[in-house]
């Protein structure tokens, strides 16, 4: 797989309604990302506030530091598998996620997984923009206390006027940087990655010192001291860990289409994702455990924790780190994909930049501050629900590409209205049925209490059900076509 020859578009398909320059396959010259670029990408994306809140949220839910680290590490090792599998076609053919989805869902049907993925990305984009905006807001309050009361009692959708202004302002900054293009994003990730790690390490040293060393922190036993108590929290939390990066496991071709080769992206991702998530999560777990010792309760929001600093310079420097961390993950993880996904709806009318603007609008409408209202909402509802949609999509794409097509695609036909991937009026009905089966089984436990265990395993059961269903349906369809040909 690592030495497989990369494919380039040989014929002109620019006249097709399915083509625009943003969705076009990259040329061999454009594929210049090496292992460091992918490792840096993951370091900067993993070193983000949602990752910190993910790990600290487990502490807030009652886990001790060992249980939390085990859950996070296992989840990221599992999600690395579909990540590397879906990365392969991006590197080989230079295609983004929406174009790759056309092979299994059809040239028109690809909009179904693309829009589902885009919806999740809009939510994540809003979450990160809100976190960054909150950091900016708190920084302004620290410098100018009167800013807190600006606008008086004006409340907009549950937010004060200063909070809404900084949220929208930070969101606009993300959009501005995304407009600079993928090379700008790559350069930003390269220098942001080490800075965020240094900032978190400084916070770690401070809180451990306040807790009088690691001894009291490691002595915290947590509330889930028996298997009967731990397992009901562990299972949905593990699903949440996988769901956390299930988004990127789908649209990773958006990045690997720029890779120099399979070896570079595989090494870079293997180095960048599991170790980085584990290290950063350990820091988050230790910091959150220390807050129990120092403040008597787990503080799972790092912005709230940083407000404990009394020195304005230290506070300003720390909040700057949060701003950089949030920008680095938000642009790479939550703007590139939905921009491409929205562009896929009407490639001739919606450009990448227009898709970026659409993402920003939907992010505001989703009111992300409500998703961050409580760790149980964040982990058990937001992460687990959408993992029930994304697991089945990943299963169908992987089954189609590796099991049925043996990694061979007709690159030109991915951009043609009439070709190998037209299916029935542009939609592969078998993929839609398999998706419905997987999502239904994954999420039925949310509605039927007696089947709640299925929802706890949402990503796993959805992936398995869609994987098996899709292969069976496609083989039946293929056999029927063969019979029809013989009869003719």
Automatic annotation (TrEMBL):
Domain of life where this protein originates: Bacteria
Keyword field: Membrane, Transmembrane, Transmembrane helix
Primary localization class, coarse: membrane
InterPro entries referenced in this protein's UniProt entry, alphabetically: NCS1, Pur-cyt_permease, Uracil/uridine/allantoin_perm
Pfam families attached to this UniProt entry: Transp_cyt_pur
Residue ranges of the TM segments: 39-61, 68-85, 97-116, 123-148, 154-179, 191-209, 229-252, 273-300, 312-333, 354-371, 383-404, 425-445, 451-473
Membrane association type: Multi-pass membrane protein
GO molecular function: nucleobase transmembrane transporter activity
Name of the protein: Nucleobase cation symporter-1 ncs1
């Amino acid at each position: 797989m690592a030495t497989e020859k990369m494919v380039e578009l040989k014929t002109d398909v620019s006249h097709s309604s399915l083509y625009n320059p943003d969705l076009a396959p990259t040329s061999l010259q454009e594929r210049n990302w090496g292992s460091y670029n992918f490792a840096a990408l993951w370091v900067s994306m993993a070193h983000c506030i949602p990752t910190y809140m993910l790990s600290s949220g487990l502490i807030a839910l009652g886990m001790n530091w060992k249980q939390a680290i085990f859950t996070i590490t296992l989840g990221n090792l599992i999600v690395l598998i579909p990540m590397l599998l879906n990365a392969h076609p991006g590197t080989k053919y230079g295609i983004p996620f929406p174009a790759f989805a056309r092979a299994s869902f059809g040239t028109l049907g690809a909009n179904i997984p693309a829009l589902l993925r885009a919806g999740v990305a809009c939510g994540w984009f809003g979450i990160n923009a809100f976190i960054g905006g909150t950091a900016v807001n708190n920084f302004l309050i620290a410098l100018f206390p009167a800013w807190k009361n600006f606008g008086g009692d004006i409340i907009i959708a549950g937010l004060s006027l200063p909070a809404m202004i900084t949220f929208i302002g930070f969101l606009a900054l993300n959009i501005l940087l995304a407009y600079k293009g993928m090379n700008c994003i790559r350069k930003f990730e390269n220098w942001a990655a080490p800075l965020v790690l240094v900032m978190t390490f400084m916070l770690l040293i401070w809180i451990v010192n306040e807790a009088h060393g690691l001894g009291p922190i490691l002595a915290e036993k947590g509330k889930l001291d028996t298997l009967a108590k731990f397992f009901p929290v562990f299972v949905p939390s593990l699903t949440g860990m996988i769901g956390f990066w299930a988004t990127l496991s789908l649209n990773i071709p958006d990045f690997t289409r720029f890779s120099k080769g399979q070896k570079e992206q595989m090494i870079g991702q293997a180095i960048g994702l599991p170790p980085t998530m584990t290290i950063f999560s350990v820091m988050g777990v230790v910091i959150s455990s220390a807050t129990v010792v120092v403040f008597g309760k787990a503080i799972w929001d790092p912005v709230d924790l940083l407000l404990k600093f009394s020195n304005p310079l230290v506070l300003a420097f720390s909040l700057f780190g949060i701003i950089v961390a949030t920008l680095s993950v938000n642009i790479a993880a939550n703007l590139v994909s939905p921009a491409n996904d929205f562009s896929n709806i009407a490639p001739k009318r919606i450009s990448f930049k227009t898709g970026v603007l659409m993402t920003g609008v939907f992010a505001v409408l989703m009111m992300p501050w409500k998703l961050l209202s409580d760790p149980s909402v964040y982990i058990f509802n937001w992460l687990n629900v959408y993992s029930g949609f994304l697991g089945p999509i990943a299963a169908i794409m992987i089954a189609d590409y590796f099991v049925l097509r043996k990694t061979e695609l007709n690159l030109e036909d991915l951009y043609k209205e009439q070709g190998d991937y037209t299916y029935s009026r542009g939609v592969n009905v078998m993929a839609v049925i398999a998706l419905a089966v997987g999502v239904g089984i994954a999420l039925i436990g949310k509605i039927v209490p007696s089947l709640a265990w299925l929802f706890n395993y949402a990503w796993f059961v959805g992936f398995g059900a869609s994987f098996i269903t899709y292969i069976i349906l496609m083989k039946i369809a293929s056999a029927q076509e063969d019979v029809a040909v013989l009869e003719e």
